[in-house]
Amino acid sequence: MTNAEREEGTHDLDWWKSVFVLIPAISIYTILCGSVSLASTLFDRSGDVAHRCARAWAWLILKTSGVRVSVSGLERLDRSRSYVFASNHQSIYDIPIIFVALPFQLRIVAKQSLGRIPFMGWHLHLAGHLLVDRTRPGAGVVKKMAHLVGEHHSLIVFPEGTRSIDGRVQRFKGGSFALAVDAGIPVVPITIVGSCRVMTKGQVTVRPGAVALTIHDPIDTADVGREGVRDLADRVRQIVAAAASPAF
Which of 149, 175, 196, 235 has the largest count of CB atoms under 10 Å? Predict the structure, then answer.
């Protein structure tokens, strides 16, 4: 048997496992963890218990999928502070990877349409995640961010706006950085390498594998005005892309 035939056989096995094992398992995890998360909001309005449910959901997904995550740079962070974590986006697996890797109370900044998905959307609303109407974000979003910081929560953003097909880091949009500047929250560049090989955009096949997540030095936004948002976005992208480039 040639190497090409072996690779094709492995791909077929991964496809069958993804469709008939992983997708049903992840659906069950989402329903169970989502139900516990929703129930927790009856006595915990901060969303902290719901976040623990999200971390358990993320851990189960990675464990079942055979995804191993190595993390470097945690020593650069102050656990008592809030941050905006700005990451490249290679795969739908990036969210569970980040939730497992970062020991912070995390909330995501996501498009408003995600809030309409059963269980996931309900969790996002009740756990205090930031759902943004991209056509008119408005000053209310900054107010919500300030509230989250007051609760010692941190935010996750994917400034590329969509997943990369080949893992290369695309241009970072400025919107999330403008929110960070307005709220005065430090930005932490995050580089994820390897998740695009776990699950590529446009495919359902999940492949076991190793993923590396690198946490870079926080960037203070206190002295950055609105006129500096574009430069800030470009600076963060350069940091993220430089750490991702050895993979290509």
Answer: 196
Cα–Cα distance between 109 and 120 in angstroms, integer?
Answer: 14
The band of 137, judged by pLDDT with boundaries at 50, 70 and 90, is low
- Number of domains composing the chain: 1
Question: What is the pLDDT averaged over residues 149-164?
Answer: 87
Three-class secondary structure assignment of the chain = CCHHHHHHHHHHHHHHHHHHHHHHHHHHHHHHHHHHHHHHCCCCCCCHHHHHHHHHHHHHHHHHHCEEEEEECHHHCCCCCCCEEEECCCCCCHHHHHHHHCCCCEEEEEEHHHHHCCCHHHHHHHCCCEEECCCCCHHHHHHHHHHHHHCCCEEEECCCCCCCCCCCCCCCCCHHHHHHHHHCCCEEEEEEECHHHHCCCCCCCCCCEEEEEEECCCECCCCCCHHHHHHHHHHHHHHHHHHHHHHC
CA atoms within 13 A on the CB side of 138: 8
Neighbours of 41 (CB within 10 A): 18
* CATH code of the domain covering residue 71: 3.40.1130
Average pLDDT over residues 141-157: 78
Domain extent at residue 43: 3-247
pTM assigned to the model:
0.87
pLDDT tens digits, residue range 211-228? 999 999 999 999 999 999
